[in-house]
Design a protein that fits this description.
The protein has 70 residues and is mainly α.
Length: 70
């Protein structure tokens, strides 16, 4: 999943768009589903990873880890 997401980040940043001359950036947060994890927990973990990506700058990918818990 990291390789796919990183490729998406590169593709969005390097693509040319008809509607703008600005560069498009993407930040992503990823969480891995585990059998004991509810859908809400999975979403919340991915959301925490996303906010970590946004705090780190543009075109970032963060995979959820326990140390993102506050």
């Amino acid at each position: 999943y990291r390789a796919i997401t990183k490729r998406l980040l590169v593709e969005f940043a390097s693509a040319e768009y008809d509607f703008t001359d600005k560069t498009i950036s993407v930040s992503a947060g990823i969480s891995q589903w585990m059998p004991n994890l509810s859908g809400d927990e999975l979403f919340n973990q991915a959301d925490k990873a996303l906010y970590e990506s946004k705090a780190s700058g543009k075109n970032q990918l963060t995979v959820y880890k326990k140390d993102l818990e506050s």
